[in-house]
Design a protein that fits this description.
Blueprint: H1 21-39, E1 43-46, H2 69-75, E2 83-86, E3 91-95, H3 100-106, H4 115-123, E4 128-131, H5 135-142, E5 148-151, H6 162-172, E6 176-179, H7 181-188, H8 193-215, H9 222-236, E7 246-249, E8 270-275, E9 278-279, E10 282-283, E11 286-291, H10 298-316, H11 324-346, E12 349-351, E13 388-391, E14 394-401, E15 404-411, E16 414-418, E17 423-425, H12 434-441
Parallel strand pairs: 3-4, 5-6
Antiparallel strand pairs: 1-2, 2-3, 7-8, 8-11, 9-10, 12-14, 13-16, 14-15, 16-17
């Protein structure tokens, strides 16, 4: 009898970053096997028990990809109630029981007892498939004082999420656990070719959305612009947004995490947009600052020039081995010196809600829009080849020069791939200079 081909879940239930089924299987298996070989002992990974915002029954949230970073990296599977145990000779996966009624209400999912699910997971390299209700009983049977379990957290002393509860469960049963979060963070930030191709495709789609936003310019309010931006981004991808966009005019743009997106827009305003989408497993993250009209005023153009020059000078310094701390120190010192020269030359002055730097110059980018260690411990470590970072200088506050006073925020953010002896600005084609933005707006 010919062998039955396994059922292949469609994205975003299973994410392949554009690879064939066979290549995707080999990619995810290789990642798990490398982790097992590095750690030696058993490892546990827990997915979310509920989808986005489902802790409140009537909350709604369109977020098609919500799997934890590590499980997405190791399996490509994107669904709730997924757990895995990796051992040297076996790989266990735990799933909710399959139910035709649940599938009728919520759509296709991977369920214990479904032959298609079992065939797919066996092809993906899992040796044992279990109902999720048996997770703790199977774990308890494997706990031994001589065995140390790897758990994807950064410290054992925190409390709250289920991974930390898992550590306490293992300890109560005379077992040991250790933090593998730092190792997972360091592993995820080195991107293979399919991941780089995925973010490159995502950036092209982000650029297309931004171009459509500019084509519908001008806008009467932040709400109108935010609605257009979100709509154009979602037209480009079934994987959803990388984060909720910021659309902020003038003084609102001087609030770093402004999210109201509700103010009216005057024709002389500037508008800061911080936005991105997800394509496959990868996220994009771009910031652009545009005029509400068709041109920048002299003070707007001068401040834009400061930010653009700072970004260009900082990007020139990016190579494998540089640290984000070093880039941070260079960028803000460069901007401060340039601002002092500009104010002296114009007789201007400014008032800002910070003394030297408003935020860090950038962050790691990948499966999450802020990837890597959540505490940013990586900032002092040399950046490896094939990591991706953002570079996003900005200036915020009230400025007076050229006979004009404005309260504004300007930020320009690009995504940069680090190579051994150079870098590649992946978002270079998305217009950002005053001349490029004005030229696009005048094409309407």
């Amino acid at each position: 009898m010919p062998r039955r081909e396994p059922w292949i879940p469609a994205p975003p239930l299973w994410i392949t970053d554009g690879q064939s089924f066979g290549d995707s299987v080999r990619r995810y298996k290789a990642r798990r096997e490398a982790l097992i070989a590095h750690w030696g002992g058993p490892l546990i990974f827990l997915g979310p028990g509920t989808g986005p915002n489902r802790h409140y029954e009537w909350a709604t949230c369109y977020q098609p990809v919500y799997q934890t970073s590590d499980l997405l990296f190791l399996t490509g599977i994107n669904q709730t109630d997924l757990r895995i145990i990796l051992e040297s000779r076996s790989q266990h996966v735990f799933l909710p029981n399959f139910s035709q009624e649940k599938q009728f209400w919520e759509g296709r999912y991977l369920g214990y007892g479904d032959p298609n699910t079992h065939d797919f997971l066996a092809a993906l390299g899992f040796t044992d498939i279990h109902p999720i209700a048996s997770f703790y009983s199977l774990l308890k049977s494997r706990i031994h004082p001589s065995v140390t379990w790897g758990i994807p957290i950064t410290r054992l002393t925190r409390h709250g999420d289920e991974h930390h509860q898992l550590c306490r469960y293992i300890k109560r049963h005379q077992g040991q656990s250790a933090c593998i979060g730092p190792h997972m963070d360091a592993t995820r930030v080195i991107h293979d070719e399919p991941a780089i191709q995925a973010i490159t495709a995502g950036i092209a789609k982000t650029a297309a959305a931004f171009d459509c936003v500019l084509a519908q310019h001008p806008y009467a309010s932040e709400t109108q612009l935010a609605g257009t931006l979100v709509g154009e981004l979602l037209r480009q991808t079934p994987y959803g947004l990388a984060f909720s966009p910021i659309v902020a005019t003038n003084q609102n743009a001087a609030i770093l995490h402004y999210t109201d997106n509700s103010a009216a827009i005057a024709s002389t305003d500037m508008i800061l947009m911080d936005f991105g989408l997800r394509w496959g497993t990868m996220c994009t993250d771009v910031s652009r600052t545009i005029p509400a009209g068709k041109t920048y005023s002299p003070i707007q153009r001068a401040l834009m020039g400061l930010v653009l020059d700072t970004q260009a000078a900082t990007i020139e310094r990016i190579r494998a081995g540089v640290t984000l701390d070093a880039l941070d120190q260079f960028a803000w010192s460069f901007l401060e010196d340039a601002l002092a020269r500009l104010l002296k030359a114009t007789g201007g002055h400014c008032q800002r809600p910070y003394t030297h730097k408003p935020h860090t110059i950038g962050h790691l980018l990948g499966i999450q829009v802020h990837d890597g260690d959540a505490h940013r411990a990586y900032r002092h470590k040399p950046l490896p080849p094939h990591s991706i970072i953002t570079i996003e200088p900005g200036i915020y506050g009230t400025f007076t020069m050229y006979g004009e006073t404005v309260t504004i925020g300007i930020r320009i953010e690009d995504n940069v791939l680090i190579l051994p002896n150079e870098n590649r600005v992946l978002t270079q084609a998305i217009p950002k200079t005053c001349d490029a933005i004005e030229a696009r707006l005048k094409q309407r």
